[in-house]
Amino acid sequence: MGRGSRPRGPCLLPLLLLLLLQAAVASGEAPSLPLVLNTWPFRKAAEAAWSTLLAGGSELDAVEKGCGQCEVEQCDGSVGYGGHPDEHGETTLDAMIMDGNTMEVGAVADLRRVKNAIGVARKVIEHTQHTLLVGESASLFAESMGFPSEDLTTQSSLSMYLQWLNRNCQPNFWKSVTPDASKSCGPYKQAAKFTKEERSVSKKRIDVHNHDTIGMIVIGQNGSIAVGTSTNGADHKIQGRVGDSPIAGAGAYADSTVGAAAATGDGDLMMRFLPSYQAVEYMRTGMDPTIACQKVISRIQKYEPYFFGAVICANASGSYGAACNKVSGFTQFHFMASNPTLKQPSEQIIDCI
User: Fold this and answer.
1) 107-145 burial string, b = 16+ CB within 10 Å, else e?
2) Catalytic residue among 213, 229, 231, 341, which?
3) What count of other Cβ atoms lies within 10 Å of the Cβ of residue 32?
4) Has 213 been annotated as catalytic?
5) Low-confidence ranges of the chain (pLDDT < 50)
6) Would you state the pLDDT for residue 210?
7) CB–CB of 279/307 below 8 Å?
8) Is the peptide bond before 275 cis (omega within 30 degrees of 0)?
9) Which of 19, 122, 298, 349 has its CA 20 to 30 A from that of 333?
10) Torsion angle defined by CA atoms of residues 213, 224, 294 and 348, in that order, rounded to the nearest 10 degrees
């Protein structure tokens, strides 16, 4: 080999870099952004959000597409039209979307006649200076934004409602009323006394298929965060009831400087503790996302040890976790995660505490 000549053959540097990258991926040390998380094993929702991100869509776009996919396919009967009729047989929708960069929130509750609740929630951000629109007024707003007016009742939801009526409206959400709500349908009036036995029955009303809200967290490659929720609420709810899903800090919360969280479960109870906001604030102190989720669940357990609920959490760097309260019939929580390390949307399972 003469002076100044270079060795022949392939350069080893690219090969070395490739091997190092493969090793990092295998060990979980590869960059973990972008990230999509959603409650429950709603795979098509995760795929819709993930593919939107990969196609260049924004974080808000991904949340809207992901939650919207669940609205279309009526995930588990608890999201979208044709599920969970209220005590008058009507299906109504709640949804929320939040931008973690600007802290803007758009939400709708008790939405009627419009199927794409998450889409309407986004229009609240884009075309109003408000945060939350409710009831018939929310429906009129949606129609003014070009959303079609459609019947949200289906043969399935009508059948559920009729079966409930045939069971003397059991179970329901009334208490301390006359006639006895644990034995008959209304109309009800307030009762002067409410026995311990009746109160015990009302508190034991747990159904893991009654509150399966989709909550979604999306973190982009640049760290921007958006969250969203969509649900048709509690089965046979009292008309006009609004749960945690469309309430910022309860159903979901995002701050791009910190992270995000989303909750699912008994919204009437969980919303009293603002679990999503609290989880983000725990992460703001540097707490690991899994520990933040667990602390939120433990905080609620002190007051309501038998509640049904779960929370997913992610920090701004893409680390994530989840936690749930262990009750009879609900000992594990399934959720979806998508990031470059996982390659494709993957179902995750954690044991409840």
Assistant:
1) bbbbbbbbbbbbbbbbbbbeeeeebbbbeeebbebbeeb
2) 213
3) 18
4) yes
5) 1-31, 200-204
6) 55
7) no
8) no
9) 122
10) 60
Please tell me the total number of residues recorded for the chain in this structure.
353
What are the beta bridge partners of residue 134?
109
Q: What is the per-residue pLDDT across 316-344, written as a single tens digit (0 to 9) for each?
A: 999 999 999 999 999 999 999 999 999 89
| Phi-psi group of 110: left, alpha or beta (phi > 0 → left; psi -120 to 50 → alpha; rest → beta) | left
pLDDT of residue 209: 53
Tokens found for residue 41: 């094993």
* CA–CA separation, 24 and 113 (whole Å): 50
CA dist., res. 220 & res. 253, Å (int): 16
